[in-house]
Every structure is written in C-alpha cells, then in structure tokens.
Amino acid sequence: MTRWLSFWVGWRFYRARQSNRFISFISFASTAGIALGVAVLITVLSAMNGFEKELEQRLLGVVPHGELTGVNEPIYNWQRIAADAQQISGIRATAPFVRLQGLIQKPGGFQGLTVVGVDPAIEPKVSNIARFMDKQSWQALDQQSNNIILGRGLAKSLGLKVGDSLSLYTPNLTAKQGNGSRIGAAKSHRFVLAGIFELGGELDMTTAYISLSYGAKILGLGEGVSGVRISVDNVFDAPRLIRDLGYSQQQYMYLSDWTRTQGHLYQDIQLVRTIMYLVLALVIAVACFNIVSTLVMAVRDKQSEIAILLTMGMTKVTVMGIFIVQGALNGLLGCAIGGGLGVFIAANLSQTAKGIEKLFGVQLLSADVYFIDFLPSQLQWSDVSLVLGLAFIMSLFATLYPAWKASRTMPASALSGR
C-alpha cells in the first residue's frame, strides 16, 4: 500500500481539483495545449512523410536515379555499361536514352523543351513514366515513328490534343563553317502528338518523350546513344553507385544523379520538417509551463492537507510523488487526446484536404508549381511514439519544481495559517 500511496493520493488530488475553478481552468488549458501541440505535430510529420514518399515514388520514379552521359561523343556500346552495372550491388537496372534540347512555339513566344528518346521495351526498368499515361500512348513510341508524348500542362498551354502536329526547333548541329565551328542555324522537326502524361510540376511543362531510334536519327548518332539511365535499390546510395560505375569506364563521361537535379526538393522537405518540429515542440513546452502554474497553485491550495500528511509520517519523497502524479496525469491526458486526434487527422488528411478544396473552391497545391497537386500523408507509428514520448517527458519535467516545493512545506506554519 505504501508503494502506491503517491499514486492513490495524487489521483484523489487530481479529481478534487474541481473545487477550485481557477486551478481547474489552468489545468484544462495545459491539457488542451499539450493535446493541440501533439495533434498538430503528428499531422505535420505525417504530411512531411507523405511528401517524401511521393518524391521517391512519383518524381524519382520518373526522374532517373543517375545518368552516365558521353563527353563530346555518343556512347556506342551501352550494353557493356549495362553489363558492368550488373556487377555492382545496389544497381537495379539500366536503359539507354538520347536527349535533345529544342524550342516549341506557343502563343506569345517559344517554350524550351527537353526531349528524351527512350526504348519503350527497356525504359520501364528504370522509370515508371508509363504509369502516368494510358497504355496506347506508351506503345505509340515505336521504333519507326515521329510520335511525341507531352506533359498535360504543356499540351494545355499549347492548345494541343492527341493527333495534332507540332514543330520542334533544334540547333543544326551538322552544319559547319569553313573553320570547323558549328553554325547556330535552327532546324525544324515535325512530330505528331501521340499521347499525354500527367505527372505534375515542372516535368509536365519541360519534358517530352519520343522513340530512341528517332531521337538518334535526329542527332545523327547512328547506333549510338546520348547516355545510360540508371535506377538503384536505395535512392540515397545513388551518388556512390553512379560514381563507382562511372569510374570503371574507359570513355570520358559526365556523372549525374538525382541529388543534383532534384535534391533541393528533398532538402526543402527536411528543412520544413525540422523547423516545424522545433516550433511545435516549443508549443508543447509552453503548454507544459501551464502544468507548473497549475501545480504551484495546487500546492498553495493543499497546504493544510500536505501538512497533515507530513505530521502523519508521510515522507517528503512520497509528497513529491503525489504532485508528480497529479501533473503527469495532465500530461498523459493531453498526450492521449492529442495522439488520438493527430492519428485520426493524419490518416484522413488527403481526403480532408480534397473536401476543403471542393467546399471552398480553392487549390491547396498547384501542379504547375509543385510536383504533386494533392496533400499527401503517411502516418508512421515511430513518429507518433516520438511525439508522445517527448510531450510526456516534458510534462514530467514541469512537475519537478512544484513537487519539490510541496515537499518543503513546514507543517507547523501551514497548520497555523502563517
């Protein structure tokens, strides 16, 4: 019984706090503050996890994890690079590509466009771009046609639909002056819009796909390709793996990985995660300070009861335990309410955001700006445990000073009213 005396008395004091309405209000404020901070922190971390997941599965599923590109000359034996890649643990697959830069005319001027030539039979090994268009569009990239696939954002801005024709202007790299330097004349290439992919973000406006052989024909590469696209098992190992593969080649090549082209998005997500974590942790800390106020007033309100318990032989450690329990119950209740609310909101965040967009007629995330047009969420129980643990530990720390102050009560002074 003595072992659980602090818990029993602390529970009785916690329930009896309703006798002082002001103390009850401060106690309610502290519990509500902790619950709100915990709920918002769980929701924000889940949203950041969702952005990371979409970045990896959507954007990095289309953008190559790494590329090896020939320097000043094409790559004529990409199969040898593919064979070398199979010998490196962590590299999943390889695929050849050609790339050309050009301009496409639109109302009001020209739009820069990166055209990537791919083999529709091999490309799915390193990219899931085919998932963002219908099957017929992807199959239209056969080896003999001048079909092209544009992003929905670009096709909309150009006013094009499937079956329409368009012209791409590229530098005439084959024309030379007498001294051997290249002429900057433009050459026009006619394409037929065979399909539209919808990914969102910058890629929708700046990237198009054609067949590998047709792209090589435009660039005059013959049997060569511009480079090799590479996918890896762990995207964070891409810089090391691409470097290992590139250094093993005899031909000079440019080495590139996703951290150079899309790494800023991941860094931005991590920065926002860190800032929000610190800010909301401080919100929880402020709420925990209310526990200090609650317990300090509770100690003053219970001076006579504390004095009686001390005169009856209760130890100072047990008295401290009473008020630690009382404050911990506030923190525990706040964590329970906030945790449940945060898990519920995080699990339904995407649907809630869609409902808000439909109700108010607004677009929270625009596909023209971000790489997704919806609010993602991925609840991780490790984040929930971390947040609840942090909030509860902070609430326990908040009880120490008032509990120590209660243990220093002098029975004679308290009972005499001085």
Largest sheet strand order: 2-3-7-4-6-5
Spatial gap, N to C terminus: 33 Å
Can you tell me the overall shape?
elongated
Assembly type of the shown chains?
Answer: single chain
User: Spans with pLDDT under 50 lasting ≥5 residues?
Assistant: 175-181
Order of helices and strands: HHEHEEHEHEEHEHEHEHHHHHHH
Total beta strand runs: 9
Number of helices: 15
The share of residues in extended strands comes to 15-25%
Q: Give the integer mean of the pLDDT values.
A: 83
Alpha-beta content class: alpha+beta
The percent range for helix content is 40-55%
Largest β sheet strand count, sense and barrel closure: 6 strands, mixed, barrel
Rounded to an integer in angstroms, the radius of gyration calculated over CA atoms is 32 Å
Question: Which short descriptors sum up this protein?
Answer:
alpha+beta, 418 residues, six-stranded mixed beta barrel, 17% strand
How would you characterize this protein structure?
The protein is of the alpha+beta class and 418 residues long. 54% of the residues lie in helices and 17% in strands. It contains 15 helices and 9 strands. It has helices at 5-16, 21-62, 78-86, 135-139, 152-158, 202-206, 212-219, 238-247, 258-261, 263-301, 303-311, 316-347, 349-360, 381-407, 411-416, and strands spanning 66-70, 91-106, 109-118, 147-151, 165-171, 186-197, 207-211, 227-232, 253-257. It has a 6-stranded mixed barrel. Strand 2 (91-106) and strand 3 form a beta hairpin. Helix 10 (263-301) runs parallel beside helix 14 (381-407). The two termini are 33 Å apart.
